[in-house]
Every structure is written in C-alpha cells, then in structure tokens.
C-alpha cells in the first residue's frame, strides 16, 4: 500500500541499514588508519567491447569507484588495496555483482554477454562468503522458477469449469510458497554453522530488524569471530540491532488516552480489557489507501470478532467537517476518534507513527504493544495475516 508521509523530514527508525563511511582504496602508508586493509586481485573474462569500464564500489557510495579498469580483448584485471574486508559491487555496464573481498582469496569473474550487453555473471572464488551469497541467489532463482512453472501448468485447469476451483486453491498455495520461500531460505542460512559469518552479517544488514527477530540476531552477533567484529560490516549490523533493542526496551505501553468521537464521547481503553486484541487504525480523511483498507476491515468485522480483535479508528485530522463526512461515508460508528496534538506527538515519538495508514496491535488487557507497525496485507487477507501475527 502506498503511504502518505506525515513528517517527511523524519527518518524511519527502522531504516534499511545503518550507513557508515564507504571503504576507500588505501595506500601503503595507511596501515594505522586502516588496520584491516586488504590487497585484492580480480580477473575476469567477458565478451564486451574494448574500453568498457569495470569498477568496484560500495552500496554506501555508488558514485566513487574504489578500483577501476577497462576490458581489453575480452578480459579485465582489477588490483589494489582496500580499507577492509567487506561486500563490494563489481559494476559492469551498470549491472552490479556482489562480492565479499578479503585477503588471501582468488577471484575470477565469468560473464555471459549477449548482443553487447551483460545479462549474467558469476565469480569463481575461494571466498566462502561470496560462494555462500552466490549459492543462495541460485537457490532463490531455481525455486522461484519451479514455482512459476507449477503456476503455469494450471492454465488448462483454470479453463475447465470442473477443475477451476481446485486450480484456484493450488494457485493460492503456490503463491503462499513463493512469498514465504525467501524468508525460510534466509533463516536456514542464518542457522547453518557452515555459512560464513560475513554472509550472515550481510543477511541481517539487508533484513528488516523488528520485535520478532532482534533478540535472535543479538545472540548471533555474540558468536561472530573477533576478526569479523573488527569490521565495519559487523559494526553496522550491531548498531542496527541495538537501535531496535533500545526502541523496544524503552517502548511504553499504549497510553489510556481519551480522544473524542464525533458524538463527543471520550475513548476509555479500560472498557476494552476483555476484548483480546485492539487493532488501532491511524488514518486521514484525505488518504485513499487508508479508506480502502478501512472498508476491507469493516467487511472483515465478523471474522475479527471471532478472533477477539476490535478495530479502533484514530484519525489524524484538523478539519472536523472532513472527518465527519469521511466517517459517515465509511459508516465507522462510535469507535472512531480524533487525536489531538499531544496524542499525535506521543505516538510519533514512541511508536514511529509517521505515515498513514498505520496499524498497531495492542493487548487489550494491559495495553502492551504486540506489534507497533502491523503491515496490512497486500492481498487483502487480513484475517489470515492476523492469525499468523497473533499465533492463533
């Protein structure tokens, strides 16, 4: 769902990765400044025109190559010193190929060029982290292709009225497998003792660290070797996990705030103590995505009631008439309240509610936070998503 930014100047507390200064090429005089410096030598075979640029950069600084060369007679060679072992990008014709560069390893890139362009490429290397990365990418590609083939094989079943319903169910199962597979594969790699520490750190860095996984990642960080702990990759990941830990360790229970509904009645959360779970829906009358979600939430009301989930709508709105008009159009009823400025500031500061729509799951009994940022399912299957989220 597209979001409307409330506070564009603020950065989400869970940014995709904590950014550090990019590793730079170094000279032999920099041993004190760069104690982890590495010497790299990369060769490659690729049928591309002479003088095609080949260079190494980082995700943190894509505009500044740290090593560069050109293709001559279908080959290239990159060599020099870098600040430290880390994941870098080999860039050819704007295509990036991830590689973990470290001392004492061999690297040879073999690319597949077609009609002057580079569609695929792979490293032949003795770097365990790079091989783990390439193996995982290959597994993802093969599995998703297999699922796509299974989905395509259902075409004739969809065309037959007798088998149509069964085809729908099988297609739904395939789609669920497609969505769940990358996460399951990632967890398998993270739990495998044979996988290189550096690649595990890369997976955590690229992941969304949240309430469900930060403790697991914290434990994993303690088992990393001391040599890896000296690298900026480890420091990035440790800072990211620690930021989430600090957020949850200091997250207060949802306050017993008392915003008013259109009729002028105040919200009293103590009246919902026996309701199981509260689904707080933060929305705005101007927000089409929020209003679309609310319609689906209302349609799911009977199912939510069976799950002991009560939606409470909290609007971010200054214009009373706009709120009243939107509420009447959506038939929101009495559990529809307008937040004042103080309440807005509290949820922004403590729960990072900075975009609309935003959803929170709160324990009705003690107002503890079950999920400060519940993601509305793109497929609209709210009931199944909530069951999974709440372990029902």
Automatic annotation (TrEMBL):
This is Uncharacterized protein DUF4369. Residues 130-157 form a coiled coil. It comes from the Bacteria. Residues 1-21 form the signal peptide. Residues 41-105 form the DUF4369 domain. Gene3D superfamilies: Glutaredoxin. Pfam families: DUF4369. It comes from Sphingobacterium paludis. Keywords: Coiled coil, Signal.
